[in-house]
Amino acid sequence: xxxxxxxxxxxxxxxxxQYYEQPQPQPPVMTMPPAIASSWLSPPSxxxxxxxxxxxxxxxxxxxxxxxxxxxxxxxxxxxxxxxxSKGPQAGRLAQFYNQYTLQQQLAAGAYGVTYTANEISxxxxxxxxxxxxVKDVSDFEQLRGKSSPYVVRTxxxxxxGFETYVVMEYCAGGNLFNVVWDLFDKEGHVSVGWCSGxxxxxxxxxxxLHLQFDQSHxxxxxxxxxxxxxxxxxxxxxxxxxxxFGCAAHSGDPGAQVGDPRYRAPETFNMPCFxxxxxAWSCGVTLFEMLTGILPFLYHRNIAGWASFQAFQGGALVKxxxxxxxxxxxxxxxxxxxxxxxxxxxxELTRMLLQVEPTKRISVGAALYHPWFQASDKxxxxxxxxxxxxxxxxxxxxxxxxxxxxxMLVASKLQGAHLTTYQQIWAQWDANNDGVLDKAxxxxxxxxxxxxxxxxxSAGEVFDAIxxxxxxxxxxxxxxxxxxxxxxxxxxVTAMYFRSAFSSLCGPGGAVSRxxxxxxxxxxxxxxxxxxxDEMDTDQSGFIDFEEFSQYVMRLCEP
Length: 560
Hints:
Elements: H1 5-10, H2 34-37, H3 73-81, H4 93-100, E1 101-110, E2 113-120, E3 126-132, H5 139-142, E4 155-160, E5 165-169, E6 175-176, H6 177-188, H7 193-214, E7 216-217, E8 226-228, E9 241-243, E10 250-251, H8 268-271, H9 277-293, H10 307-312, H11 317-330, H12 345-354, H13 365-368, H14 388-393, H15 402-412, H16 421-430, H17 440-448, H18 460-467, H19 477-484, H20 492-506, E11 513-514, H21 515-519, H22 527-537, E12 544-545, H23 547-557
Antiparallel strand pairs: 1-2, 2-3, 3-5, 4-5, 6-8, 7-10, 8-9, 11-12
């Protein structure tokens, strides 16, 4: 049985709401063509049922026999780090921010900075902007650079001039885990074990991606840092789950790593603050225990929101008990948590395995992903299967140059919220080992699932090579989304919003993309092919690519 007193206290004791815990802002102020502005009246829906995205996915994986992109980091640098330098009266990184975004509602303010919603001027897209009080305090956001996973919050851009810093991030409309649990409980009167397992599995997938692909531990996993892309409509509806706040993340074993919330820290990190994937597994156990019972393990007491409030509660009695329990763990007096208050036997067993005091006896995040408890969220009616639209879409995978895949990838990288949900569900089905990437064997399984009439004559290996933009032998989530992307299944206004966002990353101050602007995206050795691609897009041969030409070109790439 879920105890809800924890969630009541979470909102009552000197609580400063975070940006992801707020309702959707008012409709953005539009500075876009009237035809688009008239149809785009609100930010992405919080509900799957009303989302503009209806489940489309596809499009051409582009075969490149004549050229390989030298490094996908050029794409990431472009979309995350900078736009083309401003040459107008407003110059500098901060001027670029004000030229691209309009700050809207202030969501939160605290010791570390201020958080706002904002609108991207070129597209009307709603984003979150953080302004740290310490202008050099961007380590949290730098940690997110280069991480491409459906289970990690996206950082779109960082602007700083040495005096002020703005960080542009994905807007997580659902809120943090506790807010969503409370909302679901208030709506339905209960929170099902199946829903909890569906959410928690995604948390483990995000951590496993971090551990396996980057050899990093998060070091501050807790319910407040687990975000959902929308509020669920009911216990049957499990939204996309993301991990945020990477300010304490560090390479495994780094003795200089910043420490996270003591309530969720593993006991072995108190005497020697050296964090590992095993310490993240402990944090998962504390979070899961609290999620299922409403109280903290070992203390068996409701939590208090905010570390300062927790310390002050009952004259410091609770924090003294916390450290006393840690001392008992270190001395060997306590070996594991008492999980008898958890009703579901599978959930109880997984929580017990995560909360083993001895790190070597603690179940790893990767192994936990295969625990029987997660079968509760894998019933046949919950699985996502490829349908005929996907099969039909794959007929065109063999066309074009890998260069064109890069253009699609630039657009796909702008997607957020509910518009990524279907991709995430299909991704989860085919990432068999949960390592955060698709290897050739996993892609071959996906390709082989298509019936013969829907497959072109190309082999799975040839298609894989075509869409592996950085040629590293695996597909990350951005490459996968670019491969599956189909703008025809988006509301036209939403499609225009994402196209404008991608276009604004390329264009200069004149509102158009020059040949020079375009060439900076690619390596010098690829210039002849880049020139050919530019000429394909510049249909009026003006020497510049405007938004209309860019949009039409991307739509042509996605035609079946």
